[in-house]
Design brief:
The protein is of the alpha+beta class. The protein is built from eleven helices and 16 strands. The chain binds manganese (II) ion.
Length: about 375
């Protein structure tokens, strides 16, 4: 047991300055620490994040075992899905989770969603996790910078969450850190408001973890506080209070982050953009000119990175050249509607404008 004259960890969750609920949940119960950011609105997010945290607490290992922690996250996923089915919270509710087990200077992390883990080592901050989010995919694809991502309209669309997919994959990481390193877990209400540079300054700026937690939350609120803000700080100490020999930091790869169960990035890319964007796109529809005729698609026009989120619904016989110039212009760019029904009914009116008999159908099954 390490002597605990001073507190070696702190956790804090704040509603922020805009939201009416705090849907985040945090846990600091050594050796287990976690942050969860609930989604679903109407208080369902709070239900999802607290079910996830409670299940994690019940299933997490007591040792820094990455695979076992990953299994605990999967158990939490099943519980959120089950609760929604049983009418607790709402159908479609979900949550992110980023959890860590800290055993001396050995840390394992399991993550789903866009809540992050960072390690501060000798004044340098490294990101342990990679966000499962649409903007993170776009940054990796070179289409967006970090700064642009912070203000992107779809910045909160995540591509993986607990609560939707029974086969959800969990990313796990193993870290061999040094005594004196500091671990941060946080929700996107922090990272959406503060740059990594600012986070580094604050993390390294105070000795007491609770002071750091307070300063981080205050800074995010000062920057706008647009979302719930949650932080967990853990100071890493040598296991049994043993003093280490000569500092090993020269030899140790800095912040040495070994990626263990990393579900192959390629699989992610193949899976395309995933849950968040997918559900959004799936609910939308648009009309576009193709081969001279009005064509109805479910989805959104254009591409998101390598991925196109649209599915052919109907190719009508309405010839675009028979339509008004204004309509032709809209069709050239992809004329968007909130639902497939709305798009179909608009196609129907275009058919009567053009004096064409209504539609012949080549249909694709619903995605
Ligand atoms: Mn959030």
């Amino acid at each position: 047991m390490s002597a605990r004259a001073k507190k070696s960890h702190a956790a804090l969750s704040d509603i922020g300055r805009v939201r009416s609920h705090n849907e985040d949940a945090v846990l600091a119960s050594p050796p287990l620490f976690a942050v969860a950011d609930g989604l679903g609105g109407h208080e369902a997010g709070e239900v999802a994040s607290s079910i996830a945290i409670e299940t994690l607490r019940d299933h997490a290992p007591r040792r820094a075992d990455a695979a076992a922690l990953g299994r605990a996250v999967k158990a939490a996923n099943r519980e959120v899905i089950r609760a929604a089915k049983e009418g607790v919270g709402r159908e479609g509710m979900g949550t992110t989770i980023t959890a860590a087990i800290v055993e001396g200077t050995r840390v394992v992390v399991a993550q789903v969603g866009d809540s992050r883990a960072y390690l501060l080592h000798g004044g340098t901050l490294s990101r342990v996790t990679q966000d499962h989010s649409m903007v993170a995919d776009m940054i990796r694809g070179g289409q967006l910078t970090e700064a642009e991502a912070r203000v992107h309209p779809h910045r909160s669309v995540i591509t993986r969450a607990l609560g939707t997919d029974p086969n959800m994959a969990t990313d796990t990481f193993e870290i061999e850190a040094d005594a004196g390193d500091r671990l941060l877990l946080c929700s996107d209400g922090l990272t959406g408001m503060l740059t990594d540079e600012r986070i580094t300054e604050i993390l390294g700026g105070y000795r007491d973890p609770m002071t750091v937690a307070n300063e981080l939350v205050t800074a995010a609120n000062d920057a706008g506080g647009q979302d719930n803000i949650s932080v967990v700080i853990v100071d890493l100490e040598d296991g049994a209070g043993a003093t280490r020999g000569p500092r090993e930091s020269e030899r140790s790869l800095r912040g040495l982050i070994a990626v263990v169960g990393w579900l192959v990035v390629a699989a992610l890319i193949l899976a395309g953009i995933g849950y968040g964007a997918y559900t959004y796109a799936e609910s939308r529809a648009y009309l576009v000119e193709e081969a001279g005729v009005v064509t109805v698609y479910r989805g959104v026009p254009g591409r998101l990175g390598p991925v196109s989120l649209s599915w052919l619904v109907e190719r009508t016989r309405v010839r675009v050249e028979d339509l008004e110039p204004g309509d032709q212009r809209r069709l050239a760019e992809g004329w968007e509607f909130d639902t497939v029904e709305a798009a179909l009914s608009a196609a129907g009116s275009l058919a009567s404008d053009a004096g064409t008999a209504p539609v012949e159908t080549t249909t694709t099954p619903n995605p």
